[in-house]
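Homework help thread (please don't just give me the answer)

Our assignment gives two proteins as sequence + structure token strings and asks us to describe the second one. The first is just a warm-up. Here they are:
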Amino acid sequence: MTDLHLPLDRSAGRLAAQIAAGFRAAVRSGRLTAGTRLPSSRDLARDLDVSRGVVVTAYEQLTAEGFLIARRGDGTRVAPLARPDTSAAPPDGAPPRHGATPRP
């Protein structure tokens, strides 16, 4: 499992939103890749010293957004379609075409 390093600022608002933002950033940067298994909500709550409900709320939000997949018995993983930010121009230098589907 990857070291998540999710710093929380307890004076800066909702902890669940901060956790979710940290996971989003980790996925977009490529630090967390598709299929990566995340810690259980209990384990992450203990590690971050927050209530389990805070982590459950963050995981549920990220699941609804398509960043995570939760399966009973298999845990919570980064969704297969969650990829790093690839907003840069294509490698061949051609401008991106709107509505075009990239080939594998």
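The one we have to describe:
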Amino acid sequence: MINTAYMNNHHKGGYSTQKLKDISQATTQSLGISKNYKIDATQMQTLVKNLSQNKHFDTIDFTKTLENAYKVFSNLMQFSKNELPLGFEMDKNSFEILKIYDKAQDLENNFLSDVNSYQGNKVIINLKDLNLKDQSFMNFARVILNQFGGGYLIEGQSNIGGKLMGFDKNMDKNQIQDLNNFIKNNSFIANGSMEKLMEALDLFSSNLSIEEFKQKWLNLTINLEPSNKTIEQIVREDLKAKEEQKPRTPIQSESQNKETYKDDSKMNELVKKLL
């Protein structure tokens, strides 16, 4: 397992360019995939970088993740040998392709239904935007780059946010639904407190057990009154209060009146946590 914080550092992560090429070649050969579909070193580095920035996992097994991607690609080729489909449905544990979508409306209807419900082992992958750019299977790197974005092919330890999204292969449909219902039934906007809000958001990137997470989440709501404030209101009020506490000169005052707080580090930090 590689910590996501170090995956894009060769010295700490242990993945040199040659190592990445060796992994790609070995995986391709073991699955019987043509060398025409190999990933070059530059594309490999991009994959590692993208994985290192995934906020739903604490640790990622790159070799197994790449093998999962090749499995999906290999299975997808069995269904559609000439060009990429608009989308497909697969078993997220075995990576078996269950259905191909060639009509945009069928894909849209089923994809929206899948997003709004928890399908257990079944997941629908939307390739519509990728398909419009390049339908060729030769561009394998683009296919798996697109797939890694969803998290279903990633092998590793998911954090609470990943579990909520259904990326933990050890959780069944009912467990995922239960965790999401818990958040929904115990939601709050921290009663206007920026500190409480940031603490709540930090819990989503934690690697706590589900029971530990629930307990810490409930502890945040103790003695809090319901609030009608939005997250944006809380952030802006917090920034305004801090600005009012700063000593100002006439020049500073004029300058501050022109600011909209768009570049404030606090706002940027919050936005990063929400994405």
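TA reply:
I won't write it for you, but here's a hint about the kind of observation we're looking for: The longest strand covers residues 87-91.
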